[in-house]
Design a protein that fits this description.
Strand 4 and strand 5 form a beta hairpin. Helices cover about 40% and strands about 20% of the residues. The chain is globular and about 55 Å long. It is built from 15 helices and 14 strands. The relative contact order is 0.11. It has two domains: about 150 residues, Nucleotidyltransferase, domain 5; about 190 residues, Nucleotidyltransferase, domain 5 (2-Layer Sandwich). The strands form two sheets. The protein has an eight-stranded mixed β-sheet, with helices on both faces. The chain has a six-stranded mixed β-sheet with strand order 11-10-9-12-14-13, with helices on both faces. The site of adenosine-5'-diphosphate has 12 residues, from helix 10 and helix 12.
């Protein structure tokens, strides 16, 4: 079975074709600048040079048409005809409270997604455009929606409710949702498969540490807690996002600097995190690490604060689950930066009996047990694969049709 995975942004579209019999990625690509002058498509087939197609694309429909042309192109295509695609899996950022799992898309689902737009005004409209474009270009193919928020729907009210007047929850669905759901779901289930413990009761903490960063706690694959909230701003310190701050800071800075609430949110989303803490060096952890190595004090504090916050969440999630069996590091930083993994575990998690073996931790980008044999908690590096998770859900739903 071949699945086309689509991840649409407001001016971009990422795609992959995955052969689900082998889980091989046949090709992947990225369309940039949709609706903006200078749009281009970069198509990648493993073992071949990248193909770059430059053509102005006025909308997502045109982008999908060009992707389809690339997929069946006699030279750089990977399928003979679109008939070979069995189904299309779409990443959808916000499913609100309605979608606790992936779903076959029909008119009713699209209407419900439109209603969730208020909760993710930057993302959901683009996701819906991607779905509509695929329906127009490949009529009759099953389209499946896989939600960033679905995993977090496992949380109980004590974890997802904010201590606000309940009318905001009842009338506007203001609650904690948790994001990066495809990643937390995929990685926690890989951990259950690898750890050799009872998969129904194993307590797992997944640290998804990338430019966007979040942590989840789950028991037997069911989410207990997740660090992101109504929006992906809550929780950890991120590349440019502040994560948790005292909400009172907003009013204080608005008054001091004469910015309005939208301006304040832009500061919290785009100017904060390790970028802000490092004095504007970079939102990329590698640049901040380099500056810290060269003696830059702000860079050192930024990295210390990032790791400290991750460790505090791990501690609080161990409390939330009354224990932890497995801790996993994933995403750009989690998969590649052994120093971050080692320091979080050595400095802060000794009381849980966590012991990371430096030899085992000397690894990047592949599944590995990095804790020592006498560690009370197993610690893993597990690369995330959100596209594969989307394709797996798509196969599951289509095979039930
Ligand atoms: P996102 O998907 O949220 O954009 P990624 O998961 O791709 O983020 O992670 C990107 C981050 O991973 C970058 O900001 C970079 O700092 C970090 N990263 C990638 N490779 C390394 C590395 N070798 N060492 C340290 N950090 C790395």
């Amino acid at each position: 079975m071949k699945v086309l995975v689509i991840n649409c942004g407001s001016s971009s579209l990422k795609y992959q074709i995955i052969d689900m019999d082998t889980q091989d990625v046949l090709c992947k690509g990225l369309v940039e600048r949709i609706g903006i002058e200078g749009s281009l498509l970069t198509h990648k087939v493993p073992g071949h040079d990248d193909v770059v197609i430059k053509e102005d694309m006025k909308d997502h429909k045109r982008a999908v048409e060009l992707v389809m042309e690339a997929l069946v192109d006699p030279e750089h295509g990977v399928i003979k005809s679109l008939d070979e695609i069995d189904a299309i899996g779409h990443r959808v950022v916000h499913g609100g409270q309605k979608f606790a799992k992936s779903v076959l898309i029909d008119d009713e689902v699209k209407e419900a997604l439109n209603k969730c737009t208020e909760l993710a005004p930057l993302h959901n409209p683009a996701n819906i455009l991607g779905i509509q474009a695929c329906e127009a270009v490949m009529p009759g193919k099953p389209n499946v929606g896989v939600f960033d928020t679905a995993f977090g729907m496992g949380m109980e009210p004590k974890a997802f409710m904010y201590a606000l007047p309940t009318k905001y929850y009842e009338e506007y669905e203001v609650r904690r949702y948790g994001f990066h759901g495809q990643s937390h779901d995929f990685v926690s289930h890989r951990a259950l498969a690898l750890c050799g413990k009872d998969p129904a009761t194993t307590k797992v903490i997944v640290c998804h540490l990338g430019n966007g960063a979040s942590i989840s706690a789950s028991i037997g694959g069911k989410c207990v807690d997740s660090s992101m909230g109504l929006t992906p701003l809550e929780g950890l310190i991120m590349g440019t996002r502040s994560g948790n701050v005292d909400p009172g800071i907003m009013q204080f800075i608005c008054h001091k600097e004469g910015v309005d609430i939208d301006g304040m949110l832009a500061i919290l989303n785009k100017k904060s995190g390790i970028f802000g803490l490092s004095g504007g060096i970079s939102s990329d952890f590698r640049d901040v690490q380099k500056a810290a190595d060269e003696g830059n004090e702000k860079a050192k504090i930024a990295l210390d604060a990032f790791r400290y916050r991750v460790a505090k969440y791990i501690g609080s999630y161990a409390a939330a689950m009354n224990g932890v069996d497995v801790i996993v590091f994933t995403a750009g930083l989690g998969e590649n930066d052994k120093l971050t993994r080692q320091e979080i575990c050595d400095k802060y998690l000794g009381y849980l009996g966590v012991k990371v073996d430096p030899e085992r931790n000397n690894v990047r980008g592949k599944e590995a047990l990095i804790s020592s044999d006498d560690s009370k908690v197993q610690v893993y590096l597990i690369p995330t694969n959100e596209e594969l998770k989307i394709a797996m859900d798509t196969v599951k739903i289509v095979s039930e049709l």
